[in-house]
Amino acid sequence: MGLEHVLTPFAGAAGDVVDWATVESAYGTEFPSDYKEFVRLFGHGTIEGRIATLIPVATSDPMVRRVAPLSDRMKSDPVYQRWTEPPVEARALDRILVWGETDSSDLLGWITSGPDPDAWSLAVWARGDAAWTAYSCGMVGFLVRLLRGNFARCPISDTSLVGVPHARFLHDREEERLAEEGLYPWDD
């Protein structure tokens, strides 16, 4: 996987158990294998308090933070129509499934084209660029490249994670427990 060499759990147990058959039936698609492994090892939480990773949940409740397609409002907003190189077909926004977001309001997702989820491109909406960029890698490959500083240009608006040798992952369960104790884990 490679990610376990650059990302370690902050404290407490990480990882989530997902009934993939139920979730994939509800979403109408399979999920990439690297993402399933990420969910098993790390799950729903944050990387250094900068990137939130989401998991799929079979619910229609809009208040549940989860993997989800772009909202109709975003898909119709001209601000979200711009793509950088490589050019992507205009209807790609209809196929983006968001699995993460940054504290800079960037969005991270897959372009769910084709029957093989392991072949899906990754799409990043970088607020700083006000544009989408497609990357030919999966979620884990993207995070490894980001944390190792292997992109020619940082793909997200916040450059603080570029080249972080040992990033920390905090699961939402542990973050909630710490918050109940009055602790904010990302204060250095």
Structural commentary:
- The chain is α+β, with helices and mostly antiparallel strands and 188 residues long.
- It is built from five helices and nine strands.
- Strands 1, 2, 3, 4, 5, 6, 7, 8 and 9 form a nine-stranded mixed sheet that branches.
- The radius of gyration is 16 Å and the shape is globular.
- It starts with 6 loop residues before the first strand and ends in an 8-residue tail after the last helix.
Write out key terms for the chains shown.
nine-stranded mixed beta sheet; 5 helices; alpha+beta; globular; 188 residues; single chain
Write the layout of secondary structure elements.
Blueprint: E1 7-9, H1 20-27, H2 33-41, E2 45-47, E3 51-53, E4 68-69, H3 72-76, E5 96-102, E6 107-111, E7 121-126, E8 131-135, H4 139-148, E9 167-171, H5 172-180
Parallel strand pairs: 1-9
Antiparallel strand pairs: 2-3, 2-9, 3-5, 4-5, 5-6, 6-7, 7-8
Tally of extended strands? 9
N-C termini distance = 29 Å
Q: What's the multimeric state?
A: single chain
Poorly predicted sequence stretches spanning 5 or more consecutive residues:
none
Helix content: 10-25%
Biggest sheet architecture: 9 strands, mixed
Strand content: 15-25%
Helical segment count: 5
Order of helices and strands: EHHEEEHEEEEHEH
Rounded mean pLDDT score: 90
Radius of gyration: 16 Å
Q: How would you sum up this structure in a few lines?
A:
By secondary structure, the protein is an alpha+beta fold.
